[in-house]
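> Could you send the Cellobiose-phosphate degrading protein prediction when you get a chance?

Sure thing. Input:
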Amino acid sequence: MTNIIINADDFGYCEGVNQGVISAYKNGVVTSCSIMAGMPGFNQAVKLLNENKGLGCGVHMTLSCYKPVLDTHKTLVDESGYFFRRITKEKSMEFDLDEVYLELCSQIDKAIGAGVKISHLDSHHHIHTLEEFRPVIEKILEKYKLPIRGGFEYEISYDKVVPLIDSFYGENISNDYFNNNIDDIKKFKVVDIMSHPAFVDAFLSKSTSYSIQRTLEHEILTSFELKQFFEDNNINLINYNNIGESEGI
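Output:
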């Protein structure tokens, strides 16, 4: 049997994302999410987690969206105090790794302090997988000892890495996606399938070009047909908290 984690990224981004994620959990196949500690919707997201105890929640570490949790950085932000929107290899090499470590730990600690039972770690734009940040991620894993989403550019000696399928995105979003990719999905005992369900609100539409596509993701992830497809193909829906029950990673 294949155990899949349908993880909704960007929880806490804004109200539209928060409500879309909760809807995809309550009415669909989303089993897990990952929260952004520095975003405007963080407090609402924490409240919603308290009301939906079965939804697993990790931390969506970010260095490339909105503002950091800490306001002391010199290399991570622009002159207005916002993160740089995209982190190229060249830009990442300008970052002070001590600042990166302190910021990511602060995001994790903010979630812990808000009462979130953290199930795992992943990141916005997959920044945790970049070779340039390897020393930081290794220190974070040593400190928190949490499962982490895979997709690394480098070899990592860690026994809690969950494989990632990140192709349910952009032009690949369709009602046939899971049927078309079932062979790849079934190669794994446990796999994280990244998703971004949401309802579009003003903040989302103004802050990212990836907005309307999220409503299509929500429609697919809440369809009866997809639930039935998983049952017919002997696919079990879990979250990161259930990994031990699924005989490990």
